[in-house]
Specification:
This protein has about 300 residues and is α/β, with parallel strands linked by helices. Among the domains are: about 170 residues, Glutaconate Coenzyme A-transferase (3-Layer(aba) Sandwich), CATH 3.40.1080.10; about 30 residues, no CATH class. The protein has 14 helices and 13 strands. Strands 1, 2, 4, 6, 10, 11, 12 and 13 form an 8-stranded mixed beta sheet that branches. A 3-stranded antiparallel beta sheet has the order 7-9-8, covered by helices on one side. Strands 3-5 form a two-stranded parallel ribbon. Strand 10 and strand 11 form a beta hairpin. The mean pLDDT is about 95.
Length: about 300
C-alpha cells in the first residue's frame, strides 16, 4: 500500500518509476483518456524494451512503437478505428520483428488481471478456443472441467510492473476519479505492482469525496497534474478527440520511420522539454479552445470531426 499524505510530483519524477524492460499497462483506450503526456516524457527519458499489455489502443501504442520503446506487444487491438485504419508504426514494428507479437483478446486480459488480483495462478476462459491465439501463447494450458467435462483454456495471472493512467480528477493523497468508462484502468490499478497517474485537475480531498473515488489512494504511487495530458485523445468533459492533429500524426507515421522521427517525434516530443511546449506546438490556446466547443451543440461537436 502507498499511504504517503502527498503524492504529487513533477512529470519527470513520475516517469522515473518506469524502468527499461518493464511490463507496462497503459490506461484509457482507443481515442479516449490515454496518458499521452506521460508517454511523451517516457520517450524523452529513453526508456525502452517495454512489454505493453492492454485492451484496445491507438496512438499511444503506435507512438511508443514509432519511438522504438517497445519490445513486446500484448495488446488485443492497436489501430485508429474507423477514422484512419491500421496503426502504421505498430504494424511496421511487428512485421519487421522489432516488436514480438503476443496479442490476445480483451477478455483474456481481464481474466489474467483478475487472477493476479485474487492471488490465483490462473483463470479459465472459453473465448479464444479455436483461434490462433494459442500459437502465440505457449504458456496457455488446456484442461477439462471436472464439473461439466467442457474443455477450458487456462491463462496465467498477469501482474504488470507499472500501470500508467490518466484520470479527470485526483487529490494529493492519490485518489483518482475517472468520469465515463474506466476501460481496464481499475483492474490495472489493482493488479499492478505500481500505479502512476496524470490528472486533468487536482481537487481538495473534500471535493474528491463529493465527486467520488474510482481508484483509492492506496493503489497509487504518485501523480502529476497535467491539463490536456491525454491530447490528442479525448478527456471528457474537458476536451474532445483532436481529429485534426491525429490526421497529421497518421499522415507522417504512414510515410515511414525516418519521416515520422524527423517530422513528428522531433517537433512534438523530443524538442518539447515540458508539456506546455507540446501544447504550443499543436497550436496553443486557439487549438485547445476549439476542442472544448464540443459541449455547445450537436453541430459544434460534429464540426470537430469534419
Amino acid at each position: 500500500m502507498y499511504t504517503e499524505t502527498d503524492k504529487r510530483c513533477q512529470l519527470t519524477e513520475l516517469i522515473a518509476h518506469i524502468q527499461s524492460g518493464d511490463c507496462l499497462a497503459i490506461g484509457g483506450g482507443l481515442s479516449s483518456r490515454e496518458p499521452i503526456a506521460a508517454l511523451q516524457e517516457l520517450i524523452r527519458q529513453d526508456i525502452g524494451q517495454l512489454a505493453l499489455v492492454g485492451s484496445a489502443h491507438g496512438i499511444d501504442v503506435d507512438l511508443l512503437c514509432g519511438a522504438g520503446c517497445v519490445a513486446v506487444s500484448g495488446e488485443s487491438y492497436v489501430g485508429f478505428e474507423q477514422d484512419f485504419g491500421m496503426a502504421p508504426n505498430y504494424r511496421r514494428a511487428c512485421e519487421s520483428g522489432a516488436v514480438k507479437v503476443q496479442d490476445s483478446c480483451c477478455y483474456t486480459l481481464v481474466q489474467q488481471l483478475r487472477a493476479a488480483i485474487a492471488g490465483l495462478p490462473f483463470m479459465p476462459i472459453c473465448s479464444i478456443k479455436g483461434s490462433g491465439f494459442m500459437q502465440l501463447h505457449p504458456e496457455y494450458q488446456i484442461m477439462t472441467c471436472p464439473f461439466t467435462g467442457e474443455e477450458l483454456v487456462l491463462v496465467p495471472a498477469l501482474k504488470p510492473d507499472i500501470a500508467i493512467l490518466h484520470a479527470q480528477y485526483g487529490d494529493v493523497h492519490g485518489n483518482l476519479h475517472i468520469a465515463g468508462p474506466p476501460v481496464a484502468d481499475i483492474l490495472f490499478a489493482k493488479a499492478a505492482k505500481k500505479v502512476i497517474a496524470t490528472v486533468e485537475q487536482l481537487l481538495s480531498t473534500e471535493q474528491m469525496r463529493e465527486t467520488g473515488v474510482t481508484i483509492p489512494y492506496f493503489y497509487v504511487t504518485g501523480l502529476t497534474e497535467i491539463p490536456y495530458g491525454a491530447h490528442p485523445t479525448a478527456c471528457y468533459p474537458f476536451y474532445a478527440y483532436d481529429r485534426r492533429h491525429t490526421a497529421e500524426y497518421y499522415r507522417l507515421a504512414s510515410q515511414g520511420a525516418e519521416a515520422f522521427t524527423q517530422h513528428y517525434l522531433q517537433p512534438y516530443v523530443l524538442s518539447c522539454h515540458q508539456h506546455r511546449d507540446y501544447l504550443d506546438a499543436i497550436g496553443g490556446e486557439p487549438a485547445l479552445q476549439r476542442l472544448s466547443t464540443w459541449q455547445q451543440s450537436n453541430q459544434a461537436w460534429r464540426a470537430l470531426y469534419e
